[in-house]
């Protein structure tokens, strides 16, 4: 019997496998995809995330791939005015013990995967889909569909962790919680080599451009050579239903035309930037409620982490970060061998649920703040002008 079986080799599952290895424990990691690939999109990682990745020995590997933005700034998408900015340089890094970094998702995945493989204690099996599980007195029995022929395989493990994302089957097989629902928000994502942009549109800072019912986020990745651009749109009025995942039903030119229209009142910078990019992809955002207690993250010998447990709107840029924090915490509790397996998982859930809930809640609030109109927008801008640096800096998030 394997000790710990992890379902899903996304950011959360790979992180848990690595954290387990670093803590001296072997595990098995099952991923339904036939190969590990990642979408062309970026991830922001605050110092709370970077500290953990560094502690897992990834500093050198990350160094070659991340970008280290100079500043985090908030701007008005209509006027282009800078409303507030937070320097992310040496003082910030000293304050929090690690830098604020941005990375291409595929690069982070490669770094994690290589470290897991080099560790040599994780059995990573691709093309293995968890179909169901059943908890027994002394372990968990899993049914997997494996390989191109989808043959049934039965696995026994001392414990099971569902790191299988928003549509988690581990969760739906053991928890009667509501399934994810469309939020109505859309994410348009693109990446562009900075060298293809005119000098005035290149950027080495993280910018959140806030506007009515939308915001745009731009930041460098790949040592600053590429610019990641995400437009988050909260369309008004009736919308056509979009299935989860990339919306591949529309031609890139149509999508680009939508964006031009959404940006028509934007300042010159954003209009020009959006106009320079001809390949966008659309991702409808789905979500679930705020995690309400430890029981929603662990029961008996089964635990959930990352999006499987607490998906969040990307408005605080913390989904992957919280999955990495979960992984770190779970691996630490796993080493407490004086506790029973269910006790270890329960302690993990107790340690994590309220922080995850707080981050989920703040992500939701940011949607209202970033997309504000009228008086609320006026108040937001005034607040940012007066207390900008204090509002952008988030010790509660970055210090933990
Ligand atoms: C527009 C946008 C921007 C974002 N920006 C940021 C950011 O800047 N910073 C940040 O921290 N986060 C960000 N996020 C959030 C982040 O992408 C997610 O929270 C994170 O990827 C979740 O990781 P996960 O490992 O929990 O789940 P996933 O990445 O979804 O991984 C789940 C894995 O499980 C596998 N799987 C699913 N079902 C099964 C099964 N039955 N059997 C076997 N395998 C299975 C899947 O194939 C997948 O590989 C953003 C998200 C969006 C949409």
Q: Explain this structure to me?
A:
This protein is an alpha/beta fold and 400 residues long. It has a domain at 2-39 and 106-177 and 289-368: FAD/NAD(P)-binding domain, CATH 3.50.50.60. The chain contains 12 helices and 17 strands. It has helices at 11-22, 47-55, 59-63, 90-96, 105-119, 169-174, 252-262, 268-276, 319-334, 341-370, 374-392, 395-398; strands at residues 2-7, 27-30, 42-45, 71-76, 82-87, 101-104, 122-125, 128-135, 140-146, 151-162, 181-193, 206-211, 214-221, 226-233, 281-287, 298-299, 302-304. Strands 1, 2, 7, 8, 9, 10, 16 and 17 form an 8-stranded mixed beta sheet that branches. The protein has a 7-stranded mixed beta sheet with strand order 5-4-12-13-14-11-15. Strands 3-6 form a two-stranded antiparallel ribbon. Strand 9 (140-146) and strand 10 (151-162) form a beta hairpin. The protein is globular and about 65 Å long. The mean pLDDT is 94.
Element layout with pairings:
Layout: E1 2-7, H1 11-22, E2 27-30, E3 42-45, H2 47-55, H3 59-63, E4 71-76, E5 82-87, H4 90-96, E6 101-104, H5 105-119, E7 122-125, E8 128-135, E9 140-146, E10 151-162, H6 169-174, E11 181-193, E12 206-211, E13 214-221, E14 226-233, H7 252-262, H8 268-276, E15 281-287, E16 298-299, E17 302-304, H9 319-334, H10 341-370, H11 374-392, H12 395-398
Parallel strand pairs: 1-2, 1-10, 2-7, 4-12, 10-17
Antiparallel strand pairs: 3-6, 4-5, 8-9, 9-10, 11-14, 11-15, 12-13, 13-14, 16-17
The protein binds flavin-adenine dinucleotide.
